[in-house]
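Fold this: Phosphoglycerate mutase-like protein
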Amino acid sequence: MSNDGQLLGVALIIRHGDRQEFWQNPDTYSPTATQLTPLGNQQEFQLGSTLRSLYLNASSPSYIANISTDLFDQNQIYVRADFGGEDMVIYDSCVSVTQGMWPVTSSNNITIANGTTIVAPLGGYQYVPVDAVDPDEDVSLEGFDDCNTFDDHTTAFYNSTAFQQKAQESADFLNALKPYLGGRSNSLQNMWNIYDYVNVQSVHNSTFAQELPSTFEAQARDLANWHEYNVFSSSNLGGIGNIAAQAMLPTILVDLSDIANSSNPTLLTITEISYKPFLSLFNMTGVAAQNPELAGLVNYAAAVALEVRQSSSGQPTIRFNFKNGTDEDFVTYNFLNQNGDVPMSTFVDNLAPYAVNTTADWCSVCSNSQDRGCAALTLAEDQGRASAHTRISPVGAGFLGAGLTVAVSLLMLGALAFFGFLSFGKRRHSRKIHSDDELELRK
């Protein structure tokens, strides 16, 4: 399929920058808090500057037509960031990205009644609004957390023959690595924490970096790649290993629909996340299968750019671009077993059926009746059955209950018809979607 077509807009998915050490429970992936480093801020700022040169520069071949290139325009751009277990790391990374995309400008000023012109502080710093997505209220960016069936999937992986074989194969290396781990477990089950410790120390501890054998960090990374990809993927698109992407799909699909819709002013969206949804997304789209080097952890400040383009036939298409950190350029990848740009309708047909669209869906898929709004939903449903046996709309945690209309067609995002939606984050008024809306694609 041809790779030409006018660029209508872009949905960006970005990983946070370099941070201090971060520990996760290897069974449940429950996290501990950490902090973004100045290096992480710089990585994200550098990424933002690159994105600005690509998409906000009128002389760039990837310029988004009619987008504001100087001042941030909240009608055209929507920014959200995971505000989860890493504490401020992802949110602060998002702020740094926006600093690079919309730098200080004297145009950020106002003339008050007495005729005085006031420029914003720091030479015209632009305070870009970022929606902080609280995972306790919104499961869209951390669908794996508190997901009981996902925990079962992880346990099954650890008990699998493949895992036991890999543990045996890697035992000599992990034993050799143990003296460098500061007392941490060197079991393969703990591989993500092992690699994270080695990586953080190699970057920020000069003594450690000098003493660690030269091949050990790369070897630890290879094992961590294998470990994490198997945890956060399933061969079946509907498998629970893909929950990180399944929960995020409604966000992605709505963003793409907004961009493709000529009556919607949205031209650019930014979603800042952890590494986990990348693995599931690469698996579900087939990108990792065609490019095995992507079947693993993405680097700090990695970014997926889903470009919405207008094809010669008039149908919007999606181009899958990925930049694996600050040392890499954007590369265009084939996906969904097709070559080149993929019709948006194909993207929807292939992925929307596996989206977890509501809090009720998530509670059901994850077999959770207590956490993240599930308890209020369960209580409301029980009260409804006990009172009148009629369906009600629970209002406990900013969600809309379990009703969902699913109807995927070539020119409609009917699968998103209930995106009022899932307590999936705060949306500005121009992006609010009611339960009876149908999301039209540009024809």
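The chain has three domains: 6-144+236-351, 155-231, 359-431. DSSP finds 14 helices and twelve strands in the chain.
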